[in-house]
Amino acid sequence: MLTLKTISENPELVIKKLAKKHFDAKEIIEKVLEIDQTRKRTQTSLDSCLSESNNLSKHIGQLMKEGNKAEAEIAKNRVAEIKGQSKVLEDTLRQAEQDLQELLVLIPNLPSDEVPEGRVAEDNVVEKTGGIIPELGEDALPHWDLAKKYDLIDFELGVKITGAGFPVYKGKGARLQRALINYFLDKARESGYLEVQPPYVVNAASGYGTGQLPDKEGQMYHATLDDLYLIPTAEVPVTNIYRDVILEEKDLPIMNTAYSACFRREAGSYGKDVRGLNRLHQFDKVEIVRIDKPEHSYDSLKEMVAHVQSLVDELELPWRILRLCGGDMSFTSALTFDFEVFSAAQKRWLEVSSVSNFESYQANRLKCRYRDADKKIQLAHTLNGSALALPRIVAALLENNQTDAGIRIPKVLVPYTGFEFIN
């Protein structure tokens, strides 16, 4: 959430920056400033009433001591009148603050100056590429056929048990899942991240804290009886560990990693691009999260991008890094780098990670702050990244490593899987 200070100091700049995200902010910014002026005027009037009431109350005591009951009675009547005025002002102030909050959560984060212009995914900038795209024969199979051939994943059984988008992993397919999770967690710990195991459901306050609510409410599974939400990513519970917390500067950056199942409704998703593991309602992912001070957060972002790059390198997958354009960025992000791996049988790039800096946007919603060396309380910066999401990694591993002898497992995973081939 943008701070009122950011908006009020240069509203035209805020409007201009948000235009890069193709968000027309003029009307809502004008409304925010109008309500804020009402709030300030009301607060000033309320403070004046309370000051007058306090002074009169002291004066009444003095008048009573002097035996001046008539003037004391007049003063008492005025105090009662002020109380009535104060009640009206308090209600007006409360409504203005509520209206402000409801508007502020509808305004996206400002994009960094490094964000390129653009409206759609095709406008994203390719920052870097790596790995070798394998050349497969004409008889190469997509991962959904390989999963059936080697009895690794049963998509139909998932439909029977739950519905489309909830596959059942079996045998070496299940072991490959577990191997990837353990590998990703181990690599994160080696890089200095503290592992946590969060809940898979969160309350509405947590959803609002990281920006999933109200922006992505329709994409989240909602347990209405308990008013709890299934998490779309471990980012939500892990970042909310620091909601309403004041950290010490010496402890920054805070670095956490977590494995979780992720749940996304993915409403409106259909077609060939969502077949097999390409888009699921439930999937596994290891997340990395950082809480940092503003002057170091972009160094943290570079370190997180390098960490994810090391993972796809070690998995021997062809990859590329995209710097997302304004129109393809998330509501809450200031700068995002997406990782894609090449699926050789599908002949297309598959997104497997997003690494983002949210600057102070989430922290302001979360009230996640730190005490600097001068004992001043500042808003922190928050960052997160997928390291990594499993489904499309598995899809690319199966497709790219298929051979006549079976599916080869990358060397780095063999100690985790316990087997070198799926056959």
Instruction: Give a short account of the largest sheet.
Output: 8 strands, mixed
Shape: elongated
Number of strands: 19
Quote the average pLDDT.
Answer: 95
Tally of helical segments: 13
- Return residue spans where pLDDT drops below 50 for at least 5 consecutive residues: none
Distance between the termini: 51 Å
Output the strand order for the largest sheet.
Answer: 1-11-12-13-16-10-9-4
Strand content: 15-25%
Structural class: alpha+beta
Give structural notes.
With 423 residues, this protein is of the alpha+beta class. It contains 13 helices and 19 strands. The strands form 5 sheets. Strands 1-11-12-13-16-10-9-4 form an 8-stranded mixed sheet. It has a 3-stranded antiparallel sheet with strand order 5-7-6. A hairpin with a 4-residue loop joins strand 6 and strand 7. The two termini are 51 Å apart.
Entry summary:
The chain is of the alpha+beta class. The chain has helices at 4-9, 11-19, 26-66, 69-104, 143-149, 155-161, 171-190, 204-210, 235-239, 297-314, 361-366, 390-400, 414-417; strands at 125-130, 153-154, 168-169, 194-195, 201-203, 222-223, 228-230, 246-248, 254-263, 282-292, 319-323, 335-343, 348-357, 369-371, 377-379, 381-389, 402-403, 406-408, 421-422.
Which features characterize this protein?
single chain, about 425 residues, alpha+beta, 8-stranded mixed sheet, 3-stranded antiparallel sheet, 13 helices, elongated
